[in-house]
Specification:
By secondary structure, the protein is α/β, with parallel strands linked by helices. It has a single domain, classed as Flavodoxin domain (Rossmann fold, 3-Layer(aba) Sandwich). The chain contains seven helices and eight strands. Strands 1, 2, 3, 4, 5 and 6 form a six-stranded mixed sheet that branches. A two-stranded antiparallel sheet has the order 7-8. Helix 1 crosses helix 7. The longest helix has 12 residues. The protein is globular, with a radius of gyration of 15 Å. The termini are close together.
């Protein structure tokens, strides 16, 4: 079976998570697509499509929104997993998740995941550093990637993949 992971990553965290997800499906054909850099392949060629992005200024990347909006009919005919990278925890993270993905797609998805986040100060501009410090109180790089959450998310997806 073929798995497509479509993601947007501003500072690199969602890309790390997408790579970890791809590694977890090692026995299957997996293609990672950074929607900001790579061409989107024919979605019809894939059995499972995972979509992920991160929260910046209260929203997911516009390219991810445009991707799922333009391709909603195809996505609703496939097994879909949705994930979000953010620094919020528990209910606040899931509130952000609920805000960024449309209800129809969330109901159709076979897996949902809030997979943690990072503040990567070396990858931020002055304004981003200022805003992160003001809003979160953090003034240096911090990683809160949820490795267990990534494993649980990929395990839910693997239930739909054939086993040798």
């Amino acid at each position: 079976m073929k798995v497509l992971i479509v993601y947007a990553s501003k500072h690199g965290t969602t890309e790390k998570v997408a790579e970890l997800l791809a590694e977890s499906f090692e026995e299957h054909h997996v293609q990672n697509i950074n929607i900001g850099k790579d061409a989107i392949p024919q979605l019809e060629d894939f059995d499972i499509i995972l979509i992920g992005g991160s929260i910046h200024a209260g929203s997911i990347q516009g390219k991810i929104k445009k991707f799922y909006t333009r391709n909603m009919n195809i996505l609703l005919s496939k097994k879909v997993g949705l994930f979000l990278c953010c620094m919020e925890k528990d209910k606040k993270a899931w509130d952000e998740f609920d805000m960024v993905y449309p209800e129809q797609l969330k109901k159709h998805a076979v897996a949902h995941g809030c997979l943690g986040g990072e503040f990567l100060f070396d990858n931020m501009n002055f304004f981003e550093k200022f805003m992160v410090k003001k809003i979160s109180g953090h003034d240096q790089t911090i990683s809160q990637i949820d490795f267990e959450g990534i494993k649980n998310f990929s395990d839910r997806i693997k239930k739909f993949l054939p086993h040798d």
